[in-house]
């Protein structure tokens, strides 16, 4: 294994859900913005926008929708936004039609821009000795979240991130062994669940030892359990949200 | 601005499209796999898979579909795959139905897992003194690419990456100033294209000075030009590809 400070942080990644009661300095914030800005971007379209949420009332509303007490609490709250509004405005104000901005293709390229920027900022955060947790819960109630964030058409808040000085030291969570996730040339269709037996035991032991939470599900129990079972959830509004925002459409139906 | 080796690499990012005729050592490869493995993952579902393409015939076919001479040429070629096949197999082999694996919601969480892993690997690559270029062109001909990669249902190759020792020193490409992309609390709807005048000049100068390419389009000219104009392209097969793969469906229509 090759070691350097970047890689050592990456291999030591754990989500932080408890932060000290401080906020980022202006210098830290500007550095994260610059890292965001320098992320690779598809076709040089620069389709990502970063919102930094400091308003207490807004933080409280977002926390309520995310239903996680650490969201918008100690530390800094960011929302990473897929943004085709800016490029639509450029086209419109220069006398062009919307072109391909509504297409699934361009939306996916914007998703790429935005999610690469999330991880780039995450790595910068950890390089400064800070911690973070990605917030997928910003899409737990998509239509309400759009209202709270007051976002224009052609935007989509894909992930949030809470950042700060860690006030906990969680255990490293054991990941699927590489034999199940990294392949040379051929994707092996002959996956056999019994080969996960050892990994299941490792995961169960991890939960047994963890202080914060009494859940003791193995990996396969989690995958066969509630989170992937069919159930009603507002998260199924994501398609409706995207179409309402004018995103992810087939161009010939514009 | 805060400086450390991670951040300095991030602020100095440029895509590399010309590599020396070497490939990664086993140690480098295993390190990149480990970084891939330790990326944050939504709901601990671990929905990403990494393909390392070394077979020359396969590399040639991918290069042809991507229509970029550096794809699968010098250096190493990776394909980052959204993967819900593995978790479907776990459920199936343990006697469960597919549950929510076909939903748009779960597909988006898998996109997040996979694209975060792309940038995590990218940062590890640059920390080793290597370079990379993300390959969005793996979706230029989605249906043909699925055949070449021989991928099962519930998978989607979202991005490729060519990695190696840089054999060029491209200029740093000027990005949109932060006032257009990073906002506090409120998304400003009052974007005015005339405020991009200075940035347009910076971009034009960049192209004027660049050796490799004679294109001298400003940013707004690019956005109002061919790449976002309506046109026929196989990239509009992405929706069809996803649905054929059993991904990104509404659960009640499963």
Automatic annotation (TrEMBL), chains A, B:
<dbReference type="InterPro" id="IPR000415">
    <property type="entry name" value="Nitroreductase-like"/>
</dbReference>
<dbReference type="InterPro" id="IPR016446">
    <property type="entry name" value="Flavin_OxRdtase_Frp"/>
</dbReference>
<dbReference type="GO" id="GO:0016491">
    <property type="term" value="F:oxidoreductase activity"/>
</dbReference>
<keyword id="KW-0285">Flavoprotein</keyword>
<protein>
    <submittedName>
        <fullName>NADPH-flavin oxidoreductase</fullName>
        <ecNumber>1.-.-.-</ecNumber>
    </submittedName>
</protein>
<dbReference type="Pfam" id="PF00881">
    <property type="entry name" value="Nitroreductase"/>
</dbReference>
<dbReference type="InterPro" id="IPR029479">
    <property type="entry name" value="Nitroreductase"/>
</dbReference>
<keyword id="KW-0521">NADP</keyword>
<comment type="similarity">
    <text>Belongs to the flavin oxidoreductase frp family.</text>
</comment>
<keyword id="KW-0288">FMN</keyword>
<feature type="domain" description="Nitroreductase">
    <location>
        <begin position="13"/>
        <end position="164"/>
    </location>
</feature>
<keyword id="KW-0560">Oxidoreductase</keyword>
